[in-house]
Specification:
The chain is α+β, with helices and mostly antiparallel strands. It folds into three domains: 22-256 and 560-735, Multidrug efflux transporter AcrB transmembrane fold, CATH 1.20.1640; 263-365, Alpha-Beta Plaits, CATH 3.30.70; 418-505, Multidrug efflux transporter AcrB TolC docking domain, DN and DC subdomains (2-Layer Sandwich). It has 25 helices and 15 strands. β13 and β14 (515-524) form a beta hairpin.
Length: 748
């Protein structure tokens, strides 16, 4: 299109210029560019986290190698499925980039620990990987159990997140294969044993970061021991924190989808019905001057003012009229202005409200070409009688205008328009030798005009239209005095053969499911959709409705309810799948139950993060909460699996918990930090399209930070509550009597 425009502009006169008023591709390109930058920053943060905790360039390289391998497999999937690189696919990679290194971190951190204790790299790679490979596979399967069901969600939510679920699933599965095969192999070949210097200077890694990490290990071990001896206090405190945090959802705003700043505004002004085009033009010039002087952020102004007698047949079906003005405003990029498109829309509404000639107006920040979902809420009124439904619509519109948070209240059915109707007297026409077709044609030519000829001048053609002056057809008397010439050359006044009367033309009739419908629509503004729904339902209940008239809420509120129901079902399915996977791997029903105590506090973190950042709960942040189910259990699985391993090696319950906590603290913090910092650019981004995905980043970061803290303290306490001293030894004694696939029975 752009190439064709450039070719076309070469053939245009020098005083003619073509400007692109709106290009949805520009918004998408800017969003993709912004997400690509986000992806780069996420990768840098992940590298820094790994380097900080391990302090080895070789170990960092081994872990980071997982990222390109996983990304290459993801791009191969996109190529095979003929999918495009778009906002959703890049967001999926931004989410995955912090998670693909998690498995490699757990494996390599354990290998490093064995090497630091004096083992050879090859020996350490074998035994260290053998200690954690089961936990690594289980954690990956739990993540897959959360993301893969996203591919089966229906509706708009499913359309958006099918690709996200598939890409994250593929990258995570690739990463686990790399973690248990490539990571140990490279560790055996590349890692070397370096003695830890106790007398290292402060400016060295051993003298500063490692020393600080050792102190953190000791502090956590002491905290864990204290918590194990105060289990009741820890459990009750956690319960209070959970209840208090979940109560925040009552005050958090809700919305269907976040609205993006697309650097575009549309506005419609409606004057008094019947206003002539020349009067409408005066008002439009007044608004044009206002936009040019007060709003320097506006780059291009496109105005469509009224529709006169040149509108033709198509104007019958349009929503315009001589009293309507439509504006389409293109703004400078978001980086070049201080005000958001939403702030500008609010200021425009205030300016339009001050104009006495403007009867009604609406301002929209998007036509949903670049957004994922409409924000408008509709109140649908069904009924056959046009007059009755119009009255109900007017009453509801007045009540909705008084509801806090409802902007741009409009009624879909236009008001009746005035027109002159000519009713012919067939007897009088027959007496004068005239017929309906002939008279209609003559009247049309006098009022609307007829193309008499074409004027050719310097290679250009111009239509020559012949008609009466506008001043000669401006009144009812002027129309009655139009002369009609019959076949005998006689001229008869139109008023002698027809009756001309003023008439209000009925509006166009909209239907839904074969029933007549009129909609009262509005845009939610700075208020929760849930709260608005309560007030709207109250207004509907208070409005008197004649028999045969039905009213219901639709639009964004209904779509939000459907989407939230899908997310609730997704959470339930994910919880069941995660539990079943852990139960099969641990061969226990109790261990998965202990691990799943970390999940509720992820939702607590989501509530706190949304509340502090003043972010609305939407489908995007809801999907972030679903993702957390698979992410937060990873740390708990690694911790619980290592506790079991220590108990099998003969350590007493509390001792096994303390040793495991100290040993697994760094990999738990590392895996959480990589995911958190991987999502941080997504949460802090301010570029084009960032409003769409920022809530997901905020939700995941908040939930992961909170659940990580809880996992490190509460999960070991819950483990201690549900376990008994010596229980593991009894189980091992029972297993020792089992003898599989031996020809000789045991003891013979």
């Amino acid at each position: 299109m752009e190439n064709n425009l450039e070719v076309l502009m070469k053939d245009l006169p020098p005083d003619v210029k073509i400007e692109k008023l709106f290009d949805s591709a520009s918004f998408i390109k800017d969003s993709i560019s912004n997400l690509s930058e986000t992806l780069m920053y996420a990768g840098i943060f992940v590298v820094l986290v790994v380097l900080f905790f391990l302090g080895r360039w070789r170990a960092t390289f081994i872990i980071i190698l997982t990222i390109p391998i996983s990304l290459i497999v993801a791009f191969i999937y996109l190529f095979i499925t003929d999918a495009s690189i778009n906002i959703i696919s890049l967001t999926s990679l931004s989410i995955a980039i912090g998670m693909v290194v998690d498995d490699a971190i757990v494996v390599l951190e354990n290998i490093t620990k064995h090497i630091e204790r004096g083992s050879q790299p090859r020996e350490a790679s074998i035994y260290a990987t053998n200690e954690v490979w089961l936990a690594v596979i289980v954690t990956t399967l739990t993540v897959v159990a959360v993301f893969f069901p996203l591919t089966f969600v229906t509706g708009l939510t499913g359309v958006l997140f099918k690709q996200l679920g598939m890409i994250v699933t593929i990258t995570i599965i690739t990463s686990v294969f790399a973690a248990i095969t490539l990571t140990p192999t490279l560790s055996a070949l590349m890692l070397k044993w370096y003695p830890i210097r106790k007398d290292a200077g402060f400016w060295t890694y051993d003298g500063s970061i490692r020393r600080w990490l050792d102190k953190l290990d000791h502090f956590y071990e002491r905290t864990l021991v204290w918590a194990l001896h105060h289990k009741t206090m820890v459990t009750l405190s956690s319960l209070v924190i959970f209840i208090a945090s979940m109560s925040l959802f009552a005050v958090i705003k809700t919305e269907f989808f976040p609205q993006a700043d697309e650097s575009r505004l549309t506005a419609t002004l409606e004057l008094q019905t019947g206003t002539r085009v020349n009067q409408t033009l005066i008002t439009s010039e007044k608004v044009d001057n206002l936009l040019k002087t007060k709003y320097p952020e506006v780059r291009i102004i496109s105005t469509a003012t009224g529709s006169d007698d040149q509108g033709g047949f198509a104007s019958i079906f349009s929503g315009g009229g001589s009293h309507k003005i439509s504006y389409s405003l293109s703004l400078v990029p978001i980086e070049e202005r201080t005000k958001s498109v939403f702030e500008m829309a609010d200021e425009l509404r205030a300016d339009f409200a001050k104009m006495p000639e403007v009867v009604d107006y609406s301002v929209s920040t998007s036509d949903n070409m670049g957004s994922f979902g409409g924000s408008a809420v509709d109140v649908e009124i069904y009924g056959y009688d046009i007059a009755e439904t119009n009255i109900v619509a007017e009453k509801l519109a007045e009540k909705i205008k008084n509801v806090q948070g409802c902007k741009d209240v409009t009624i879909s059915r236009d008001k009746s328009k005035p027109e002159l109707q000519i009713v012919f007297d067939q007897n009088k026409m027959a007496a004068n030798g005239l017929n309906t077709a002939a008279v209609s044609s003559i009247v049309k030519n006098r009022v609307d005009g007829m193309t008499a000829t074409r004027l050719r001048q310097f290679g250009d053609e111009y239509d020559v239209v012949v008609r009466f002056k506008r001043s000669a057809t401006s009144t009812l008397t002027d129309i009655e005095n139009i002369g009609i010439t019959n076949g005998m050359g006689q001229t008869i006044r139109l008023g002698e053969i027809a009756q001309i009367k003023e008439y209000w033309s009925p509006p166009s009739i909209e239907r839904k499911r074969k029933e007549r419908i009129v909609k009262v629509s509005f845009t939610p503004y700075k208020r929760s959709l849930t709260d608005i729904q309560v007030d709207i339902q109250k207004a509907i209940d208070e409005t008197e409705k004649p028999s045969g008239v039905m009213v219901q809420i639709s639009g964004a509120i209904k779509e939000q309810m459907d989407a939230f129901m899908d997310i609730a079902m997704l959470i339930l399915i994910s919880l069941v799948l995660v539990y079943l996977i852990m139960a099969s791997q641990f061969e226990s029903l109790k261990m998965p139950f202990i691990i799943m105590f970390s999940i509720p506090f992820a939702f607590s973190g989501v509530a706190i993060a949304l509340f502090i950042s003043d972010t609305a709960l939407s489908v995007i942040s809801g999907i972030g909460a679903v993702m957390l189910i698979g992410i937060v259990v990873k740390n708990a699985i690694v911790l619980v699996d290592f506790i079991n391993l220590m108990r099998e090696r003969g350590h007493e319950l509390y001792e096994a918990i303390a040793i495991s906590g100290r040993s697994r603290l760094r990999p738990v913090i590392m895996t959480s930090a990589t995911t958190i910092l991987g999502m941080l650019p997504l949460a802090l981004s301010t570029g084009s399209g960032s409003e769409l995905w920022r809530p997901m980043g905020v939700a995941v970061i908040g939930g992961l930070i909170f659940s990580t803290i809880v996992t490190l303290v509460l999960v070991p306490v819950i483990y201690a509550i549900f376990s008994k001293h010596g229980e593991r030894n009894k189980n091992l004694a029972v297993y020792s009597h089992f003898d599989f696939m031996n020809d000789e029975p045991k003891g013979k």
